[in-house]
Design brief:
Butyryl-Coa Dehydrogenase, subunit A, domain 1, alpha+beta, binds flavin-adenine dinucleotide, four-stranded antiparallel sheet, Butyryl-CoA Dehydrogenase, subunit A, domain 3
Length: about 375
């Protein structure tokens, strides 16, 4: 890590990184291929990650979190990526924890955060619908207040952790006539909930072990006390405020993937021989790797700047959008260049670079598409 603040924490972070790496390599990575086939991770893996204190690193201890920093969270994201474990949906879980921390009432935080930290509850955030992705104001899922409950009807799609989640931060319209002021966030506990149904786990071109699913709500009754923050109409504002955090963690995964791809490809190019010499001795290989290594370094310096800004509370929407679009574009480009250097083996699933290639593509789409990122940056010009 490169920034001043991160450098000052480097001893502590590197000891933490060693422990996380050991855990990920021993207890998660060996299951990744099987999780890909079954389309979801084992629930036991969530509980183990909870026991290790890896789920809510930067949530205060009073709510069951590890009481550490965002840099610790980033170390966990980086180590998952390094081990090519993309099935484990910690990103959306952490995002929901941050919504609770920022807007939850004391009772809501005390009720859900400790269970999320322990991995007893798996969280998802459900914004997207068949007719509303980039344009969130088009959300149609409706929540109507009836006494001390909300009656919820609608459906969501592309929801990460959708199959395993038992706590869903649901984007609903509480007042469809009021545009963005009619959007609210409702926390839905799904265990034995009449009218709630998880549809099929969606077939994707990568991230096969992530349970991306459709969710259906037919006359679902949710206690009114589950409204995030206790007031209607704040959902859009809450989403806009938290998106920079979410976009930074997409960039964290992107940069970790770039670094790993360069490392793996350099090793391969040293071993693989053609025309009587190692691939790394050929000028094209050397230049390609030199370019990719340069990208990795620039991305790391910028990312660490972003991590420090999240840590000191000064991250803004435009900078987070820059981080999200630029690092994910570089991730896809660098991994493509690296895969080429593996030749035919790059296209085989026996080598990690093939999985990295397939897993990378969605990074340019979710968390707000890269086109939307450029819109947001352009607005700040
Ligand atoms: C694997 C996966 C996991 C996901 N996880 C979640 C999740 O956990 N929770 C959740 O709520 N959603 C999730 N999503 C949904 C994701 O956030 C959306 O797919 C994304 O926001 C884009 O929305 P859309 O698919 O409806 O595309 P659309 O909004 O229909 O966009 C289609 C194309 O039009 C472009 N476009 C749209 N508007 C503009 C504009 N104003 N200017 C220029 N171009 C524009 C887009 O950039 C895109 O290229 C996930 C998606 C995937 C694939």
């Amino acid at each position: 890590m490169e920034g001043d603040r991160l450098r000052a924490m480097s001893g502590e972070l590197s000891a933490f990184r060693d422990a996380v790496r050991r855990f990920v390599e021993a207890e998660l990575a060996p299951h990744e291929a099987r999780w890909g086939k079954q389309q979801h991770v084992d629930r036991a893996a969530w509980r183990r990650a909870g026991e290790m204190g890896l789920l809510l690193c930067d949530v205060p201890e009073q709510y069951g979190g590890a009481g550490a920093t965002f840099a610790h969270e980033c170390v966990v994201f980086e180590e998952l990526q390094r081990a090519n474990v993309t099935s484990f949906g910690k990103h959306v879980h952490s995002i929901v924890a941050h919504y609770l921390l920022a807007y939850g009432t004391e009772a809501q935080k005390a009720r859900w955060l400790p269970k999320m930290a322990a991995g007893e509850m798996v969280a998802a955030i459900a914004m997207s619908e068949p007719g509303a992705g980039s344009d969130l104001q088009g959300v149609r899922t409706r929540a109507v207040r009836q006494g001390d409950e909300y009656l919820v009807n609608g459906s969501k799609t592309f929801i990460s952790n959708g199959y395993l989640a038992n706590l869903i931060c649901l984007v609903v319209k509480t007042d469809p006539q009021s545009g963005s002021k009619g959007v609210s966030l409702l926390m839905v506990e799904t265990a034995d909930l009449p009218g709630f149904r998880c549809g099929r786990i969606l077939d994707k071109i990568g991230m096969h072990g992530q349970d991306t699913a459709e969710l259906f709500f037919d006359d679902v009754r949710v206690p009114a006390e589950n409204l995030l923050g206790g007031a209607e109409g704040r959902g859009f504002h809450q989403l806009m405020e938290q998106l920079p955090w979410e976009r930074t963690i997409v960039a964290v995964a992107a940069v970790a993937a770039i670094e790993r791809a360069v490392e793996l490809t350099t090793e391969y190019a040293r071993q693989r021989r053609a025309f009587g010499k190692a691939l790394i001795e050929m000028q094209n290989t050397r230049f390609k790797l030199a370019e990719c290594r340069t990208t990795a370094h620039i991305a790391r310096v910028f990312l660490d700047h972003c991590i420090e800004r999240v840590m000191d509370g000064t991250m803004d929407a435009a900078t987070a959008s820059m981080a999200k679009w630029w690092t994910t574009e570089q991730q896809c480009r660098v991994i493509d260049e690296c895969l080429q250097l593996f030749g035919g083996y790059g296209y085989m699933m026996d080598y990690p670079i093939g999985k990295m290639y397939a897993d990378a593509r969605v990074q340019k789409i979710y968390g707000g598409t890269n086109e939307i990122m450029k819109e947001l940056i352009a607005r700040s010009l």
